[in-house]
Amino acid sequence: MRRSECAQVRAKASAYLEKDLSPSLMERIKKHLDQCHLCTAFVRSLAVTVRMLSETEAPQTAPDGFTDRVFQRVKDAKKGKD
Ligand SMILES: [Zn+2]
Questions:
Q1: What range does the domain containing 32 cover?
Q2: Angle at 22 between CA 35 and CA 1, to 5 degrees
């Protein structure tokens, strides 16, 4: 039964990271992670992957001109300091 519990936890891992589960399911997964190193490692590496993806996607989803404005603001801020 333990193996299928792991499969369930991994299937719900991304929803767990987004806290997109019922409180009782969140609690069940949390308890499982407390005693299962493999699933803990799985959830951690998934969290890193999700963060990396959201960081690399950010510039693509930024509205037109947004990065230029940020860039300009950084340049202005530097000018002010010097
Ligand atoms: Zn497990």
A1: 2-81
A2: 40
pLDDT tens sequence across 1-28: 456 899 999 999 999 999 999 999 999 9
The token duo for 48 is 């890193």
Read off the amino acid at residue 56. Answer: T
29 CA to centre of ligand 1 in angstroms:
9
How many A from CA of 5 to the centre of ligand 1?
A: 6
Distance 37 CA to ligand 1 centre (A): 7
Domain count for the chain, please give it.
1
> pLDDT by residue (tens digit) across 29-79?
999 999 999 999 999 999 999 888 888 765 556 677 777 888 788 888 877
